[in-house]
Specification:
about 450 residues, Aldehyde Dehydrogenase, Chain A, domain 2, 6-stranded mixed β-sheet, 14 helices, 18 strands
């Protein structure tokens, strides 16, 4: 008799087991895909306005379940309660924006044909879209792709990270409570091997992943082999450039927040801090002082600035990256030591004297570790920023906003740039990157058009 396979969730604040969930058999998984497709066949015939009503209602239900969701996210991945509240509020805003703007974005467009006659462009839903999502924003990562695709008329499957299985199932319940047809949004409790079978399934028409570049290469290849479109958001090593004319107090405060937000576990977090020579020491001294005062502790306590890292292996990997950087000549200015006691805590850490070839210079550090890099001037800073193989987000600090905007628009090789600020997602702005940070866009009207059939209909 084969052993029952289970998914497990663990509270990173104390390392204790939370819950176990039975994994789906191959038959249960296939049945879920088929039932999602059958629900899609009915859903696609509903008007965009009817879909929008249910999308808006999902936003309301997220608000109603906010306390429950926030508590569960904190238990499963260690997020501060107040940041969990911000996450759910963002998700409700995404639902509201999509409901208000989705119908117009999906309307047919009319064209006059060159030789006479009329052309019509229709944005038709294509079918079941499969999302593979990470643990760091348990609600937002799901809402980001699912709401756009449901609005577009597609069905949605979700394979969430094992460590936030409870959050995934709660979202499925919330979507159904909001009036979404049964089986149209389905959570798959499956393994990586089973996940490959979902990508190959004839009823699955598109694949979206948020994860590491290595995962992106695997999923992108698997989708390509099966001639299915994919959208990949693969993390980054975001550079925040501090220019000579920056407001240093603002830059320091913002960069600290940008590094430690969500316990430092954010793909679009501030990670590399590239500071021009003339203000380098001034920035460094203030930055290290503020990072040294960051308190990692119980995420349910208002006194904590950060919670724990989400998993033990993630903390070990981060610490190994710090140690390897130090072995190659990096200097620890604060933090950098594994704390004793329960939970997967890691201190706010600043590294200096960084060079290419060090993990802290080249790679993504997915935790509260900041990399300080000195640049000669603005041109050198931009050159260093763009030398990364990643290109998700970045930031520029300068009192000359026009100059900063010109640098952002014409020189920064990333999908997003924040000027004199640190930002996460905005419902009406595109989210996504270039280079090893992936391809495709989410949010705004851009996500609505990723998985549709842009169909040309021509009348003589």
């Amino acid at each position: 008799m084969s052993e029952e396979k289970l998914l497990k969730t663990i509270n990173p604040t104390n390392g204790k087991n939370l819950k176990e969930y039975k994994m789906m058999t191959a038959q249960e998984m296939n049945d879920a895909v088929k039932s999602c497709h059958e629900a899609f066949l009915k859903w696609k015939s509903k008007s965009a306005e009817k879909r929008a009503q249910i999308i808006a209602n999902i936003g309301k239900k997220l608000d109603e379940h906010k306390d429950e969701l926030v508590k569960l996210m904190t238990e499963e991945m260690g997020k501060l309660l107040k940041q969990g509240e911000q996450e759910v509020e963002l998700c409700s805003a995404i639902c509201d924006y999509t409901a208000k703007n989705g119908p117009d974005s999906l309307k047919d467009e009319e064209r006059d044909l060159p030789e006479g006659g009329k052309g019509y462009i229709t944005y038709s839903p294509i079918g079941v879209i499969y999302g593979i999502q990470p643990w760091n924003f348990p609600t937002y990562q799901v809402v980001r792709y699912s709401i756009a695709n449901l609005m577009a008329g597609n069905g949605v499957l979700l394979k969430h990270a094992e460590s936030v299985t409870g959050s995934a199932l709660l979202l499925e319940k919330i979507y159904q409570e909001a009036g979404l047809p049964e089986n149209l949004f389905k959570v798959l409790l499956i393994s990586h091997d089973q996940s490959d079978k979902v990508i190959e399934h004839e009823l699955v028409r598109g694949v979206t992943l948020t994860g590491s570049p290595d995962a992106g290469k695997i999923i992108g290849k698997k989708a390509g082999e099966n001639l299915k479109k994919s959208v990949l958001e693969l993390g980054s090593n975001d550079a925040y450039i501090v220019l000579e004319d920056a407001d240093i107090d603002l830059a320091v405060k913002t960069c600290v927040q940008g590094r430690i937000y969500n316990n430092g576990e954010t793909c679009v977090a501030a990670k590399r801090f590239i500071v021009v020579d003339k203000v380098y020491d001034q920035f460094k001294d203030a930055f290290v002082e503020q990072m040294s005062n960051i308190k990692a502790g119980d995420p349910t306590s208002e006194e904590s600035d950060m919670g724990p890292m989400a998993r033990k292996d993630l903390r070990e990997q981060l610490h190994e990256q710090v140690e390897k950087s130090v072995e190659k000549g990096a200097e620890i200015l604060c933090g950098g030591k594994l704390p004793e006691g329960d939970g997967y805590f890691y201190p706010a850490t600043v590294l200096d004297n960084l060079k290419p070839g060090m993990p802290a210079y080249d790679d993504e550090l997915f935790g509260p570790v900041a990399s300080l890099i000195k640049a000669k001037d603005a041109d050198d800073a931009m050159k260093i920023a763009n030398s990364s193989r990643f290109g998700l987000g970045g930031g520029i600090f300068s009192k000359d906003e026009e100059k900063a905007r010109e640098l952002a628009q014409n020189h920064f090789d990333t999908g997003m740039v924040f000027i004199n600020s640190f930002g996460l997602a905005k419902p009406n702005m595109p989210f996504g990157g270039v280079k090893d940070s992936g391809y495709g866009r989410e949010h705004g009207t851009f996500g609505l058009h990723e998985f549709v059939n842009v169909k040309a209909v021509m009348l003589a």
